[in-house]
Amino acid sequence: MYLSSIDRPAAEEPDGTRRRGLAVVGGNVFALGSVSLVTDISAEMVSAILPVYLVFGLSMSPVAYGVIDGIYTGATALLRLVGGYVADRIRKPKAVAGVGYAMSALAKLGLLLAGRSVGAIGVVIAFDRAGKGLRTAPRDALISLSAPPHALGRAFGVHRAMDSFGAFLGPLVAIAVLAAAGQAFDAVLVTSSCIAALGVLILVLFVRDRVDDRPPAARIARPDVTSLLRNAPVRRLLLAACLLGFAVIGDGFVYLLLQRREAIELGWFPLLAVGTSLAYLLLAIPLGALADRVGRAPILLGGYVALIAVYLLLFGPLGGWPLLVAVPVLYGLFYAATDGVLMAMAGRVVPEDLRTTGIALIQTGQALAYLASSVLFGLAWQLWGPVAASRLAAGVTVLAVVATALLLFTRSTTSDTEVTA
């Protein structure tokens, strides 16, 4: 089977050598990782308890939760394209990312004003995700431009490991704040907003826009977005991202199904996210480095095989503590093998002048597919029950993996030339 130009092993550096270890990643990647670490502490403080608050506190139906969960990840997906385009147009990805991080910090305070109104909560969550939509593509473009092509998997692995360390700490901080504040949800929101503001400060002080040494004549006056869709490897990767995005039902549903299966006390609910984040933290760098060596597509697809196992285990023969350990570990493996690896693949095929826009395009396609998946899974749960819905999700994921493999492992044509930075 021929490995397509999307995922050919990266070439060595011009002098024929390859620097090894984390030194090749560069200080800018670590600075961006620090921003994500702090921001994810803030975000996960809220998201770890949000499913319980919405479903048990506000008595939302699975369909209503699916809509809110879809908004949380996908409804503002088009703003990823806006952020990507603007960052490429003004060549200031750091500034665009900074606006996005600041919006998310303000949204935590907005939840204080939303009260128990589902509509107001949806608006605030949309504003928060708008911030995420604006910042994600510029941030990932900065990572891809701050590391050599042969180390992109490692660079994204380092960033995602730091990001997941923040996700690991976030629920623990939320539990501590709730305990200290007498279970007051408002205290979590205020603390979360202050931590998010610290992330913005780190971005301003320590992250730098990539220095561009090309002569002015080599720079584009305006990003030609349509050229991305004429690029065959980019088109294939975009389609693969959409297929795979449709296979993901979202963390909240996975944890809610696990909570119902094992009757977990609500006070311990945030620890499910902690287990996933710990597995992600431990596996992100090793899997990123492995993807650089053996190819990124096999690692990506392997991650979705782990996701299939998660869906099947939710209502399989395994139960008790083995299940409570297996699901977060496999779920963390899924994230470690897919999130940064997909962006590393994008960094290999999207031209540098359109790097942020191209990454945003792929992320947008995936997020919109996730929005549809989340709503449809909530509907399937309400119509047919959680067991049938989970098995249906597993079947859809199998089909998505097979279709993606056909896309990524195909014989290249003359038009499929790889676009490198």
Automatic annotation (TrEMBL):
Per the record, its GO cellular-component terms are: plasma membrane
One GO term in the molecular function aspect is: transmembrane transporter activity
The portions of this protein that span the membrane are 21-43, 63-82, 164-181, 187-207, 237-256, 268-290, 297-315, 321-346, 367-384, 390-409
Q: What is its main location?
A: membrane
Q: Does the keyword Kinase apply?
A: no
Give compartment(s).
Answer: Cell membrane
Q: State the annotated membrane topology for this chain.
A: Multi-pass membrane protein
Keyword list (alphabetical) reads:
Membrane, Transmembrane, Transmembrane helix
Identify the domain of life: Bacteria
Q: Where is the Major facilitator superfamily (MFS) profile domain?
A: 19-412
Name of the protein: Major Facilitator Superfamily protein
Source organism (scientific name): Actinokineospora alba
Question: Which lineage do the record's taxonomy fields give for this organism?
Answer: Bacteria, Bacillati, Actinomycetota, Actinomycetes, Pseudonocardiales
